[in-house]
Amino acid sequence: MRKIWNHLGPHPSAANHREHVIAAFGALGAIGLIAAINLFLTGSLLASLPLVAPMGASAVIVFCLPQSPLARPWNVVIGNVASALVGVVCARFIPQVELAAALAVFAAISGMALSRSLHPPGGAVALTAVLSGAPIKDLGFTFAFNPVFLSSLTLVLAAIGFHTLRNRLVKAD
């Protein structure tokens, strides 16, 4: 039983709770900044609300796992944008939602693999484009630029700033 727990339970070298709480504050600021930028650009958060889930997942990766290859700026930005593009294509040209959703995730993973930009929340971005209905469908390919590209770029820049500041503060101690 202990052997099973060792494989299924938490990894023994997981970051401490203090580090996760500090990272959570970084994510809070980044998601707040993304919301403010989208509100400023569109006058409404309704068009960008469906993007909250994928950006939340990206925030966990870039703030809590910054050393992961999945957190690299290329992966976050290109992975999310490529996934948005294929999601919009599937939403526009495949009338059966279930098939469009499945193909969107397939195409997102394939596109990220080909562009060497694997970022798991990209699958959620592709699904968002298919499942969000009229607000995203009305945006069309613009969805890939705003809110996806701008939000992904904002998230990456916020994380870089956060981790740079955090590292300087730690070295100062």
Mean of pLDDT = 89
Radius of gyration: 17 Å
Helix/strand structural class:
mainly alpha
Unreliable segments of 5+ consecutive residues: none
| Secondary-structure element order, N to C | HHHHHHHH
Instruction: Report how far apart the termini are.
Output: 43 Å
Count of the separate structural domains? 1
Q: Any descriptors?
A:
mainly alpha; 77% helix; 173 residues; globular
Protein model, in words:
The protein has 173 residues and is mainly α. It has one domain (17-172). The protein is built from eight helices and no strands. The chain has helices at 2-8, 17-42, 52-64, 73-93, 97-114, 121-131, 134-139, 142-172. The longest helix is centred in the last third of the chain and has 31 residues, at 142-172. The radius of gyration is 17 Å and the shape is globular. The termini are far apart.
